[in-house]
Design brief:
Number of strands: 11
Structural class: alpha+beta
Number of helices: 14
Shape: elongated
Oligomer: single chain
Order of helices and strands: HHEHEEHEHEHEHEEEHEHEHHHHH
Distance between the termini: 24 Å
Length: about 400
Amino acid sequence: MSKARDLIGVAWTGLMARKVRTFMILLGPMIGVASMLGAVGLTESAKGALQVQLAKLGTNLIIAQAGGSFGSQNPTLPGDAVSRVDAVSSVISAAATTNLSGVVSLPVLGAADYYTAFPVPVRAADDNLPSVLQVPILDGRWLDRADSRLHLLSVVLGSGIAKQYGYLPGEIRTIRLNNTNFGVVGVLGPVPLDPTLDNAAFVPQWAARHYFGTNGQPNELYVRTKSGTTEATAADLPTAISLGGPDQVSTQVPSNVLAAQAQANKTLQKVALLAGLLVLTVGGLGIANVMSISVIQRSAEIGIRRAVGHSRSKIATQFLLESLFVGLLGGAIGVLIGIGAVYLVSSVEHWVVEIGYGQIPIWMGLALLVAVIAGLYPSIKAARLEPLETLRLG
């Protein structure tokens, strides 16, 4: 026992001789480290997915909505709102939509009761809306000038409503808008920056005027700006659209919502880290408790070793090494569990895996620190046992 290797071997053997007890005291460091690593990894992976999404979608989209003048029930923007916006030097492109009220969209006959109670939004839209949104067409085509010139009754479905209607790619399908049949010519891809568009049906502006009684004035604009000018442009658009008139215009930058979501994830990360530290602390109390009981259970072993000349320091070191092994082994398993959880959840949610491998030594160090501190009292207690006292205990 004079060599450190022998002392380590005895400590490891003592730990492995009681596997169930060892597993129970490993749970604290395991869960604590896994929680902290998972908290950081999952929130960073979610944030990474948001950053990739923002990079793909761009942060330069603005939505301008009509606020109306006082007493107005159906606020609209000026008919030439798009040309007014295009005159702003920082604007790249703009497209208008009009929310059509009182229009009931029916995918099949006999569904009137349901879709009257839960109406599908119907919008009149410009030809260039997908290019402004930078969203692909999943099937078919978008509305174009030929629809207006030839007076075609065309409709494009949002991706969500297409799924709800059971639309199949390439299918020849008509839907009823009020009492008029419209032919489905395409499906718009998902719009992450404005998910309300996913569950809408889109018709040409001329059809809205001739079949649904609109005056051709939009109530919502989608504006794509030059990079780095989004916030300034959003502040200028209300004046550019209303020209100082009574019409009220509100603007929002939808990418800011995703950025705020990333910030919320950081708050959740801090809460989860605190929870992991709490679990680690409780686990340390469990280590101290179980190791103290182990000292009593192994009193005969301690007495024999003391009787044959082993010093108090060696007895204390053995039990302290057992606590150290618990922290090391529990922390290592916790790291593996945490990494596995991050990869599993990220694959399910289609996130970009982000694991702070540089922080792993910190979590391992915390687990070791808690385990060593928890093992101090049992180690001192074991070292103070006298050979004759062990006869009384065991």
